[in-house]
Amino acid sequence: MIVLDTHAWIWWVSRPGKLSPQARASIDHEEVVGLCPVSCWEIATKVVQGRIALDRDLRIWMKQALAVPRLDLLKLDPEISIRAAELGSEGFHGDPADRMIMATALFHRAGLVTKDRRIRSFPHISSIW
């Protein structure tokens, strides 16, 4: 299994050409593509704020994007929440959504598909881009 960062999920379902060749190959290769539930919140927040625009109503986009074959909306386990909080003391001071997504990948011992350089430079995460 791999886990997708929020932007990787958007691109996978809406604009796959924006993914790097390695990211696309990793997604194509995996039987299960995991998604942290906080990505749903992150997209909804950015749409409401006008920071991103979707090609259809948010609720319709979300329902369709969650129905993509092989996509698994992962459970938000209490251990993931604790791990996300600990990332700050380990030197990653990114936003809470990034920490939750990273903690989800760490909890599942999965690679994280992300273009985010701050996440990719964090030594404890196995990133794919």
Describe the model.
By secondary structure, the chain is α/β, with parallel strands linked by helices. It has one domain (2-128): Rossmann fold (3-Layer(aba) Sandwich). Helix content is 51%, strand content 11%. The chain has 7 helices and 5 strands. The chain has helices at residues 6-14, 21-29, 38-48, 58-66, 78-89, 96-107, 117-120, and strands spanning 2-4, 33-35, 71-73, 111-113, 127-128. The protein has a 5-stranded parallel beta sheet with strand order 3-2-1-4-5. Strand 4, helix 7 and strand 5 form a beta-alpha-beta unit. Helix 5 packs across helix 6 (96-107). It is globular.
What's the layout of helices and strands?
Layout: E1 2-4, H1 6-14, H2 21-29, E2 33-35, H3 38-48, H4 58-66, E3 71-73, H5 78-89, H6 96-107, E4 111-113, H7 117-120, E5 127-128
Helix pairs in contact: 5-6
List key phrases describing it:
alpha/beta, 7 helices, 5 strands, globular
Order of helices and strands: EHHEHHEHHEHE
Beta-strand residue percentage: 5-15%
CATH overall fold name:
Rossmann fold
Strand order of the largest sheet: 3-2-1-4-5
| Quantity of strands, as a count | 5
Major sheet = 5 strands, parallel
Q: Total helix count?
A: 7
Mean pLDDT value: 95
Low-confidence stretches: none
- Radius of gyration using CA atoms only: 14 Å
